[in-house]
Write a structure and sequence with these properties.
This protein is an alpha/beta fold and 227 residues long. It has eight helices and nine strands. It has a five-stranded parallel beta sheet, sandwiched between helices. A two-stranded antiparallel ribbon has the order 3-4. Helix 3 crosses helix 6. The longest helix has 18 residues. The chain binds 6-chloroguanine.
Length: 227
């Protein structure tokens, strides 16, 4: 999978070369490139934004600069993901869908966002014919300073679902037994008693059917208590 992240703060994305993702890149499973939007400006001030038509607070990112950047990386089959708090809420199911894509392009908006014509332009029939799709995505109901952290969240959630990225693929099958993707039971390791708190007796019983039943109950209880 090819992943291109376009941002005015490339340094923000440095953690992408650490840990599992760093390994997945060295082994060639994913190829992540971070691009500086300002490299695609055409004026001396490297301008990326201007005031909004119709008035209002803040600045809007210029469509031509974004198109230059996207055009420099786009391939047939690409999923263009525009990060905006107004986008569709990202979840595990969406992550699974994107995990089989050949190219993901993350457009990290700042300020009040990217001129809407970028979404419109890449949604046109000529791009549809190339299997290129545009999405607007949000990671939750709160406002971040920009899409960079949201892109990292999505990249981590998506890439760990690609075969070969996780050290132990069993971690994935365990998760997928839960319809909502990640509703887990509480877990314990050694020692059996720690600072006066004991591991639940059932987990020491060796009765796998009873343990599975307990874990399901606990996971359901957790899911209910969380909301
Ligand atoms: Cl994708 N961007 C911004 N700026 N804020 C967010 C978000 C994205 N998702 C949740 N909050």
């Amino acid at each position: 999978m090819k992943i291109d992240v376009i941002t005015i703060f490339p340094e923000y994305l440095a953690p992408l070369s650490l840990s599992l993702l760093g390994k997945a890149q060295s082994s060639g499973i994913v190829d992540i490139k971070v691009h500086n939007l300002r490299d695609f400006t055409n004026d001396n001030h490297n301008t990326v934004d201007d005031t909004p038509y119709g008035g209002g607070a803040g600045m809007v990112m210029l469509p031509e600069v974004w198109a230059q950047a996207i055009d420099s990386v786009i391939q047939d089959g690409a999923e263009i993901i525009i990060l905006t708090p107004a986008g569709k809420r990202f979840n595990q199911k969406i992550a699974a869908g994107f995990s089989s894509s050949t190219q993901l392009i993350f457009a990290c908006g700042r300020y009040e966002g990217i001129d809407d014509r970028i979404r419109q332009y890449y949604s046109q029939p000529e791009f549809q014919a190339r299997n290129i799709k545009v999405h607007e995505a949000s990671i939750g109901d709160y406002v971040l300073g920009g899409g960079e952290v949201a892109a990292m969240v999505m990249i981590e959630a998506i890439t760990r679902l690609i075969p070969g990225v996780l050290g132990n693929p069993d971690s994935l099958t365990e998760e997928s037994h839960n319809a909502e993707g990640y509703l887990e039971y509480p877990i314990f390791t050694k020692p059996q008693e720690w600072r006066g708190i004991s591991v639940p007796e059932i987990l020491l019983s060796g009765n796998h059917a009873e343990i599975a039943k307990w874990r399901t109950q606990q996971a359901q209880k957790r899911a209910k208590d969380n909301f």
